[in-house]
Design brief:
Elements lengths: L1 H6 L1 H16 L10 H4 L3 H10 L1 H27 L5 E4 L8 H5 L14 E5 L9 E6 L3 H5 L4 H11 L4 E4 L7 E6 L9 E4 L3 H11 L5 E3 L7 H9 L4 E4 L12 H4 L13 E4 L8 H7 L2 H11 L7 H10 L5 E3 L2 H4 L29 H13 L5
Helix pairs in contact: 2-5, 8-9
Amino acid sequence: FAAWCAAEHGWLDPWCLFAALKDAHDGQPWWAWGEALARRDAPALAAARAALAEAMRVHAFVQWQFDEQLRALRAYAHSRSVFLMGDVPIFVAHDSADVWARPDLYFMNERHELTVVAGVPPDGFGPDGQRWGNPLYRWDRMASDGYAWWVARLKRAMAQADLVRIDHFRGFAGYWEVPATCPTAREGRWVPGPGPALFEAFRATFGHDLPVVAEDLGTITPDVVALREAYSLPGMRIVQEAFNGWGDGSATANARHPFLPHHHVPHALAYSSTHDSDTARGWWDSARPEVRAFAAEYLACSDAASIHWALIRATSQSVAKLALFPLQDVLGLDSGHRMNRPGTADGNWRWRCTWPMLEPQAAARLARITTAAGRAG
């Protein structure tokens, strides 16, 4: 335990002090702890460390146990040729150890309030866009020390998984900046991100071939594509999304959608759907007639009870290097099991699998499909 704490000191100490202080202040955000602690005055921090030493040790122990259990799980998976894929959100929360420990890296005023926040412009998910509300990075300050904060973050993620997906990859090329006073994301603007400089810093630490997947969905501009291709990062292709409208809605126009398997490229990841999509069954049940008609022709299936298997089969037969299927799709579950509804605040990230859901028939059929497509290992 002591050796692990010493090795992980860089992130562990700020987190444990933050967590202990948050407990001591009944869960209030860090800017409500009093000005001395909010500003991280040295005497106040020293007093807090002394008073909360045992609480900090408990938080450290919990983190150590998580690491130990994850390491055991990963070793067990590797012994069966199963690998773990991690996920790194591009942004952090305002009320987080990251922001409290290094406020100089974010756009905030002297009252610790955010001046601009993250989001995305209006799109198919909503006419007002999405006002995420996360702090935005001061990339110029991060550049001054070789993006050390981001390098450390990715190093930690790569210690826990074999491959990591960086969410909202397009934000590294350009991101949507929303004034904090605006209630929606409509009033935002595009601002350049760090671009190649950040990925050069990654390569300097992790080598030329980065085990990173770029989440390149949404409003993708040429600079995003150029950044992804310059560092040979695979992107994502969501097969379900290919049927949700394209061009003038005709079959000819729909057939040109880049997410359809016949347009996929090897250096990519193919998904039947994602955590942001409806489940395959839910999508089919709510699809417009013209969407169903095209999907039924392309997938050679018009049966609601089997549509999830048709979508999985088409995804598995893609030339993409990896094919991924949400468990909800494998199990044929409806919209009541959807993981996330982008742009909404309630009911998200609550779904859990239960053991009785895992029917052996589903496993056997998935095995047949992936074996026929050469993906069974």
